[in-house]
Amino acid sequence: MFKAIVSASTLRDALDAVSVLVDECKIRLNEDGLAIRAVDPANVGMVDLALDVAAFESYEADGGVIGVNLARLEDIAGMANSGDLVHLELDEETRKLHIRIDGLSYTLALIDPDSIRQEPDIPDLDLPAEIVVEGNQLDRGITAADMVSDHIRLRVDEASETFHIEAEGDTDDVDLEVGREDLIDLQAGPADSLFSLDYLKDMNKAIPGDAEVTVELGEEFPVKLHYEFAEGMGNVTFMLAPRIQSD
Amino acid sequence: MRLDEFIEIEQNERAERRRLAEEKSYAVVDHLDSFRERFEETVQGDSTFGSVSPSIFVGRSNYPNVSAGILSPVGNEERAGKFATSGAWYDEGVDLPEVFRRRTSLLNSSRAAPVNVHDTWDGFVGVGREVAIADRPVQVEIGLADDPKLDFDVDDVTTPTGPRATARSAALDENPHVPRPVKKTLEDDDWRAEGAINYLYRRGFDVYDVNTILSAGALGRSEARRLVPTRWSITAVDDTVGRYLRGRVRDNPGVDAVQVYRNEFVGNAYWVVLAPGNWEFELVEMKAPGSVWNPDPEAGTWLASDYEGYEGRTGYVDETAGAYHAARLAVLEHLDDVGRQASCLVLRHVSDDYWGPVGVWQVREAVRHAFDGDRGEAETFEDAVRGVAEHLPVATTALRRKSTMVAGRQSSLTDFS
């Protein structure tokens, strides 16, 4: 059983965070809200998303799992104005999701959840550095890095207590230095890892500019990017495996 | 498949390379002279002559009105098969002068033709298509409208082409032998080109045969059957078969250890480093100041590279063009053979000895045969790169800046759980 009403903008923010990594996913319809966890086919990038029951206008669910084609669902959600409410209802008999937006109804065929890639276990990482930065700052560093290279270095300078977003290209270099005064918070620690810009750019697309992003970082370790949406009632954790220089 | 995905080089750049090749080998001019002698012996009186055609050539200028050409080794008919580019050239050990000798002996009799040919099986274009789908050289009779222009042309993807003449007519002097799988793809006009290309490859046709058949507009859905310029068809087939093989190898386990293979062919040295991990691929090219390829010899060795991750590329192959797809195909064939996947770096050093571009077949064959030889093993990918770098004309720091994989190889989340 699943029946819910949610604002179009909240639904879109949630779907965007997942669709940057995968084309289809399982959605867990838990009693306390929706949960999505997905990993890209290369096992490089992962998303873990929760949307609390409080983010919905109304919500009833009993723990089922559905499989959805994200592009389709995003297209439908795209038909709504941001203030519109989206009505979702699962038809258990036909295994279809009925979606209603201001007089428009759409019946979405679901995907057998067993045919979707298994949800990953979240690696249990104890990362030594934690940086809390505004989405806009991150975006600035990623945009600049993209001008010179296809990979990006995230690093903490423990002595000067600064966070660095760096890129080394064929000929040109980029270094965005963000000091403690421009960070929301910083727990300095040994942290220096290289990442694929393709992945990080995609993740960055989903992160709102005004979000507070918690970046957990280590040395040649995956990075965790955590932020909230839907006025704190939704939260997303991205995890991205590094490009490594030593085996 | 979108053919215009494959990048073009500027016309004047091509002219410059041709000039350089000419400068490096006066022999090319001699070859053209000896072609003239053979041509004059063969074509007497009128301008119709009988020959044996092993292949065709479709130009790309003025697309969609292209020049469709039937190639024939005038005066060398008994060895016609040797004049078509194939993997056998590597086995024969042909060198650069021999490639130019063969190709400057091959007359390209061509006519302008619209590419839309799906039901054209008669006339000049029809004869060319029959030649392309046959699995052996075909006896033809060609009527020329003018004297051959004794010239040659080079390109970074196709094999060089030789003298050209405008054709009036062409006729078959025998019934060409068309292999059964080719007949099958020809008859099925609801089969997309990608599927038909891979079908022929799986049935044992090498990419050389498949790209000639594709070029003749003999694959794909009927309304989409068009003449495909030779340059585009080479890259399209390497890319299509490569994507098919990539889909297969990505389910294989990774290689056990870091392996290094090396090969050298026509002035090009290749190193292939395979490391445990998921599929990723990069070709890094280092072009010596004196090779015809270096656009800025003053600045020293020219570096170019292109990379793809596990899921392949979405953008154009900007810097290494057809060589990228040819090298990737060769590596994927090896991985498919041994039932593995790997993180693969191919380094190509183009030396001063590579005075004339002979086409990407040399990249494909050199990398294919790199796996025949002994292999080295290294503890780590970085050790392997350090070892190889000692033989390279560039510093490791420059290599790290240019190469995505040398800067860092993609790990997977499962490595950390």
Radius of gyration of chain A: 19 Å
- Run of helices and strands of chain B: HHEEEHHEHEEHHHHEEEEHEHEHHHE
As a percent range, the share of helical residues of chain A equals 10-25%
Number of strands of chain B: 13
Q: Name the strands of the widest sheet of chain B in spatial order.
A: 1-5-6-4-3-2
Lateral arrangement of strands in the main beta sheet of chain A: 6-2-3-4-18-17-16-10-14
Radius of gyration of chain B: 22 Å
Largest sheet of chain A: 9 strands, antiparallel
- Helix-and-strand structural type of chain B: alpha+beta
* Low-confidence parts of chain A: none
Described by its quaternary structure, the protein is heterodimer
Largest sheet of chain B: 6 strands, mixed
CATH topology of the largest domain in chain A: DNA Polymerase III, Chain A, domain 2
Mean pLDDT across residues of chain A: 95
Class by helix and strand content of chain A? alpha+beta
**SSE pattern of chain A:** EHEEEEEHEEEEHEEEEEHEEEE
